[in-house]
Hints:
Blueprint: H1 4-14, H2 16-44, H3 50-73, H4 81-111, H5 116-139, H6 143-147
Helix pairs in contact: 2-3, 4-5
Amino acid sequence: MINFQLVFRNYLDQHKLFKQFVKFCIVGGTSAAFNFLIYYSVTEWLGVWYVYSSIVAFLISAVFNFLANKNWTFRNTDIGWAMINQLSKFATVMISGLIINTAIIYFLTDWFGFDYRLSWVFATGIVTFWNFSFNRFWTFRHRQNLSLE
Length: 149
């Protein structure tokens, strides 16, 4: 009988970039779940206006996303000013990703007649690769990241 978990783990060990991308997606999915949970909780249970709840949820999930990607996905150990520099780069990548995501959703939905949910799927897929690439090669750039040793 094939142990798929062992096969997958061996595949990840042999393909470090793919492993890093999988970790990035896990962090992103977890961050999205945190974002929604906070957004819903603050809006429904605390009675805060949904726009303010969205801002609070975004900020909290962005901090989690940054720290998890820095420490787990990219194994980056920079601290102090280097970390503040990374945080500003991370914010730039996130904001550019948000702009690209929103533009893709708008164009696919309003110009090409796609269902807005399908537009979201396409946009999220494209922006995931955008965010991963820029965070890997720019935000958390480190020789270990680049060589994947």
